[in-house]
Amino acid sequence: MDKVEFKQEKSAATWQRALGQLPNPHALQSWTWGEFKSRWGWQKIPLLLTSAQNSGEPLAAALLLKRKIPRTPFSILYVPKGPILDYNDGPLRRQVLAQLEKVARQERAILIKIDPDVVKAWGEEQERPFPSGQQFIQELKERGWLFANEQIQFRNTVELGLAPSEEELLMGMKQKTRYNIRYAGRKGITVREGSPADFDTILEMYQATADRDGFTIRPPDYYRDAWTSFYEAGMAQPLLAEFEGEPVAAVILVKFGDKAIYMYGASTEKERQRMPNYLLQWEAIRWAKTQGCRTYDFWGAPDEFVESDPLWGVWRFKSGFEGEVVHHIGAWDYPVRPLLYKLYSQLLPRYVEWLRNR
User: How far apart are CA 152 and CA 114, in angstroms?
Assistant: First the structure.
């Protein structure tokens, strides 16, 4: 293919239009997410690759996030859930990688990290390899990219196709899940659509969930900003499960393209015997279907399907809805400055562990 270069895009409308023309765009590559992250220590650099021969048709997009390393001239670069392109096009894949490597050198980066939604395999126990994903992994290795120690997003997930009717979706679920959905309704659980007025309530439940399940969360204002940004852009919908008017669980769905993502979930210990999370998840699936989505992404599955995996309990819940396990290639780093990269890779995990211990 002809030599092309990434160029920085200044227009939000042009960026969103370009993503709409590319295959499998992700919410974390949206202008909205870039603007949000720019308020939390990152600089957004939206890069478009266009075809001069075909009236500027977009070939690839990479919402690049840049963070300066304090008291140094260096930075780190991250392309969350990107870049976006047709990964079946081998020459384009290689051209995009070359361009990202070039940008990383220009930005004096120690590393650039990508974690595109490129499928490596499907299935829980008997993985079925996906040829173009396997080929892309080989290309990354050949160019000196390394599988990242720091996997920021979930590497694996569960996806449910929404083409069947609601009745067919229900009948496709495990019998116990279907029973629990109906049981919650019989036991007085109701689900309603929420608004930003509910964000503080959801935050309280989210903190309770983190305390109960032992994971670290960010400051409350971070989530308020993220949820409000998505909501005002028409990309997010909160749903709350209640018993006698009191919220007991919530989800925040993020819709982009033809996919709805169960990106945030929270619950309390109250009324758990009434199975509110089952009905809440079913209503989330129904909402996604009414929005014209083709796929419901449960946002996360174990790296290894063994009981010792931290996501095993969550997986047991999600598995009842009988979606398909999708294994992605995960995050990959290009070490622009290998010695500094090695130092950074050793210090960062210790810093994160220190934060967790605090």
Answer: 10
**Position 1 in a domain:** no
- CA-nearest of 286, 305, 304 to 296 is 286
- Model confidence, pTM: 0.93
pLDDT given for residue 310 in this prediction: 84
Residues 171 and 72 in one domain: no
Length of the chain: 358
| Cα end-to-end span (Å), the chain | 52
| Distance, CA of 281 to CA of 267 (rounded, Å) | 12
**Predicted local confidence at residue 214, as pLDDT:** 80
Q: Which residue has the tokens 């964000």?
A: 199
* C-alpha span between 219 and 235 (Å, rounded): 22
Residue 42 lies in a domain: yes
The label of the residue with tokens 């990242």 reads 148
Residue 34 sits in a domain whose CATH number is: 3.40.630.30
Shortest CA distance to 265 belongs to which of 292, 246, 284, 289? 284
Average pLDDT of adjacent 10-residue blocks, the chain of 358 residues: 81 96 97 98 96 81 96 96 96 96 97 96 76 93 95 94 98 98 98 98 95 88 98 98 97 97 95 97 98 97 87 91 95 97 80 58
Give the per-residue pLDDT at 125.
62
Question: 179 and 204, same structural domain?
Answer: yes
State the amino acid at position 91 in one-letter form: P
Q: Which residues contact 275 (CB under 8 A, 6 or more apart)?
A: 180, 181, 183, 184, 187, 189
Q: What is the pLDDT of residue 164?
A: 98
Q: How far apart are CA 350 and CA 238, in angstroms?
A: 35
How many domains does one find in the chain?
A: 2
- For residue 112, the tally of other CB atoms under 10 A from its CB is 26
Please choose, from the candidates 81, 80, 84, 48, the residue with its C-alpha nearest in 3D space to the C-alpha of residue 65. 80
Whether residue 221 is found in the same domain as residue 295: yes
What is the domain range of residue 211?
158-326
